[in-house]
Amino acid sequence: MKKILTFAVLVFASVLAFACKDGAKAQPNESEQKDVKSGEVIVMNKDMFIKNVFDYEKSQDWKYKGDKPAIIDLYADWCGPCRMTAPIMKELAKEYVGKIVIYKVNVDKERELAALFNASSIPLFVFIPMEGEPQLFRGAADKATYQKAIEDFLLKKK
To answer: What local confidence, expressed as pLDDT, does residue 8 receive?
Structure first.
């Protein structure tokens, strides 16, 4: 009986150590974050939003903090249309590397950010230009629609 219990504890400890190791990889540290920003969709939480986008706790007047226009994709893992647009956002992040930043926010984990943008339906995309107010884009669309919004609204090319 002791051998079985010891074996079970060892297996559990191994699985736990492996899970913790993978969890550490899932959230890059600050030096890895710089590499992630080049052509990747960045998972955003409330703290990152306040630091990099807008500090709504200190100000009611919108003032974007970023150095490039941005898109925030508000999604949920269970949402079919969200799963359809995720690969498009990944492609756009690579295509527009150095020109825009694309973030994604899980509305189930970041309820306060979802409420900030009144995300009553998802997917919800927040297009944030360098100057002016952000614009909301509700629902899924094809890649060409997002490209047009990026070109016309974020990069001001017409």
So the answer is: 34
Query: 3-state SS of the chain?
Result: CHHHHHHHHHHHHHHHHHHHHHHHHHCCCHHHHHHHCCCCEEECCHHHHHHHCCCCCCCCCCCCCCCCCEEEEEECCCCHHHHHHHHHHHHHHHHCCCCCEEEEEECCCCHHHHHHCCCCCCCEEEEECCCCCCEEEECCCCHHHHHHHHHHHHCCCC
Tell if the pTM clears 0.90, that is, is over it.
no
Q: Is 20 a catalytic residue?
A: no
Concerning whether 79 is annotated as a catalytic residue, the answer is: yes
Class of domain 37-154: alpha beta
Domain ranges for the chain, please list them: 1-35, 37-154
- Which residue among 41, 42, 72, 82 is the active-site one? 82
